Every structure is written in C-alpha cells, then in structure tokens.
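User: Here's a chain of 185 residues. Predict its fold as tokens.
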Amino acid sequence: MKSSMLIPRNFVLLIYASVMMILVMILDLAGVPVKSFGIVPLSEVHLIGIFTAPFIHDGWSHLSGNLIGLIISGYLMSQQSCFKRATVLIVILTGMAVWLFAGGGNHIGASGVVMGYYGCLLGIAIFRRNLIGVVSFTALVVLTYYANINFFATLLDFSEQTSSEGHWFGFFSGLCVSYLFRKSP
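Assistant: Prediction complete.
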C-alpha cells in the first residue's frame, strides 16, 4: 500500500476504526447488547472494556462528536512516527486508569483516545521542541476551534452522562506517552 501526503498510511487505520465504530452502533440499534462491553470500574468481568469501550457509543450524536474529534486529532497524530505505539499505549493506559480510578457507571466512547491524541500532540510540541510537533499542535487547536470543538470545555465537562475521567485520563496518558517517546525520530 503506497502512502500519500494527503492521506497518511496510519490514518487509514483510523478510518477502519471509525467504520468499526459505526458497525458497532448499528449492532446496538439491532438489539445486540454491545454496551455491556464498556468499562465498569473495578469489575473484573469488564476488564475487556479497556480494549472495546472506545468502539462503543451511546447514540449517533455521541458517535459523531467523537468521530469529528478523532478525525481531526487522529489525522495530525497519524503523521507522527510513534503513532501506532502511542495509540496502543493511550488506549491501554486510559482504559486501565478508568477501570482503576473512575467513578461508577459504564464508561464508553472514543473520547479518551481523542483526548489522548490531544495530550500527546501537546507533549510532542513541548518535549521534542521541533517544528512539526508545534505545527501539528497549533493545527489541532485551529481545526478544533473552527470545528466548534472547545478543548477545555471537553476536558472540564463534568456532566452526569460524560466520562470526565476518561477525558482526563486520556489527556494525561497522551502526555505521558509523548514523554516516553520524546526521543523517537
């Protein structure tokens, strides 16, 4: 598969993940109990949710909001050399932190990954101090602004239906991952 400048090879993986999220939503609408695969803190039965929760959403508006954020932050993140390793670590660290420390309820959605990408891009700009990292983070801020996505409102959303822990743990996981890979090419 030949990579192009417009659509990085790694971004194709996010397109596949997005299609899977849409298919999971259709399964949910068909009555398949997919939400039982979310993260329920400290429930050993729900440990699998660490890997499955990002694919499960509570309605089309939840899914579309996460897909917009995932496409913007994921596109910029997919151009980083550490993209695949960073994605796996962000998913695992965010999921584990939610499972260990979050409040009750069933935590689902890709917003932890989206916020993880946001944190990782910020961390790359800070820790690597290179032009690509700074430009990527600046582009993320500008694009999310014009897409009418308020990063700070998302990070500080403590409403009942929102997994604010997923947002916070995702963001801090992304920062940690960027520090871990700060010397990667």
